[in-house]
Amino acid sequence: MTAGRLALAGVAFAVWVPGCAAPEPTAAPDGEGSPRQILVMLHVAPPHFRPEINYGGGYGARIGGDARRRVAEALAGKYGLKVVDDWPMPALGLDCFVMEAPGSAPLAGLVDALGGDPRVESVQRMQIFHVLAHNDPLYPLQPAARAWHLSELHRLATGRHVRVAEIDSGVEIGHPDLAGRVVAERNFVGDGPSVAEAHGTAVAGIIAARADDAIGIAGVAPESELLALRACWEPAPREPALCSSFTLAKALQFALERKVAVINLSLGGPSDRLLERLLDVALDRGVVVVAAVDPSAPDGGFPASVAGVLAVAGDDEHDAPAGALLAPGRDIPTTITAHKWGFVTGSSFAAAHMSGLVALLHELDPRLRPADVRTLLAPGGRGGDGDVVDACAAVARTAGACACGCALAHDAGSPAEP
Amino acid sequence: MLGLSLAAAEACAQVSASASIVSDYRYRGTSLSRGDPALQASVAYDDASGLYGGLFASNVQFAISPHRQLQAVAYGGYARRLERGLSAEVGATYAAFTGPGTYDYAEAYAGIAEEGLSARIYYASRYFGRDSGAWYAELNVAQPLADRVRLTTHVGLLANSGGDTTYGPTDRRVLDGRVGIAIELEAFTVQVSWVGIGSTRTGYPISEGERRNTVVAELSRAF
Fold first, then answer.
1. Count of the separate structural domains present in chain B
2. CA–CA min distance B28, chain A (Å)
3. What was the ipTM of the complex prediction?
4. pTM score > 0.80 for this model?
5. Most Cβ neighbours (<10 Å): which of A9, A120, B4, B118?
6. Does B218 sit within 8 Å of A56, measured CB to CB?
7. Which domain holds residue A197?
8. Residue B208 pLDDT
9. A286 CA to chain B: closest CA distance, Å?
């Protein structure tokens, strides 16, 4: 075999390929997560030897990207779809393409047909998720900080150097009580910069608002490093925010890359395979995932019901699912848009409390794995309708020190220190 | 050859190609193009099973023969994802050269990688067609600096077995390194790297007196 023949083979190979040539990609539509959209996952080869990179000492970030785009366009052409968007998910070894089906033909057959195509790794519908909150600003103030003795906890830990990813609607990072608290902000909804929205701003304040700044509230983890990842959008003012499988997957992929310690998901929706796979990777890597219980779902909904995720409901809920953790979730004062403060209620905000608390525990013991965290928060095992979390006891156990007036009387039956 | 093309057409899956111009074809720290620019092209096929293969070609100019020659490398291997974001692979290459001289050689390799980092070890029993073999071990790290800018670093160690080779005095161990910046533009990638090597007595069919250290620029396009 001579070099000449080898090279000619390569040229013939490359010239033959044009059958797969692709038109330019189309622009993204205005609305995220339309009901006519599906997610098509294509394999990405694991990184391997490539002479054009290795002999050149370079890197090939775009290697295969054009090839996958060609495959996606070919699939779209074959099944009458339009490629709308795509995003690499190296955590799963996949490239995720959003495709839209025109007209009104039923999608189920299309999903099955695509799933059977050997070029496709998996397919799923694009799904919509909603944040879990009520708007009841008229009830009297009952600060969550009092229930957890927050200022005493803060003598032991404030969440310093702990990265918390808040995957939610937009956060008002210019809010005076959030100044300097957000270390990274990304918008995964459409293009363009993030916007300030009610739910995301409220959750951010509960987790990480500045303490001792003589204004507003003190977050549960006031020195944690918050990543404000906008994967949800508020369709109109005062309407609950929505999120899609795609926007959430992008935000989770980013949180994994940034190696956060905690991920807060104050939202719920249908079981979603792509999101479940990403959450499994997160849990496997030791990331603590906190999710709000969906009160309308018997098992708490998704992602709260995923094994390993900390499901959190408000401690005023009567019908929390077994195994859920309970935290303050009613009449919580927190930051809201336009540099103001207001009261919020809902399991979204109980989850935010829990994420802040986990950040405190993580600062005290960075090696904690998700299962250890759960044991620390509710050592008594899984109660029938949720376990109230004794923040003081959890922090004291983790720190191996006294907290909250040195009273571990809540700790039923077990010795204070090993 | 035809079978390969047909298979490509049927799958139309994960067939990629690239073309590039480099100011100096530095292979493991040694210039194979006598310090002159080179044109390079490649095609690659990635199968869902983890099998992969491809062809790479570049013009080379060995000092021993004054004519320009073509190097073509055929390669194939198997890569598999493991836990915790790691992947492992094994494979082999066959490098063939046009023109006079018998520089053709086969090489086998194995390695592990993570996104942005790879380590690989190679062995050829008749390196560049000479009587003796060589091991080569390398570590490559790519670090994002900004949205479309990366820092690429490479360090490699060539271990020549036996003594001096048919191509002249040869050191048993030669270290090479490379540090560069890669910038992704719309359709092209530009890379500028500093390449350095510890010795020119590498046992390659090149002449003495080639520059050891140099700056290399590369413009490439992926398809």
1. 1
2. 7
3. 0.88
4. no
5. B118
6. yes
7. 130-399
8. 62
9. 11
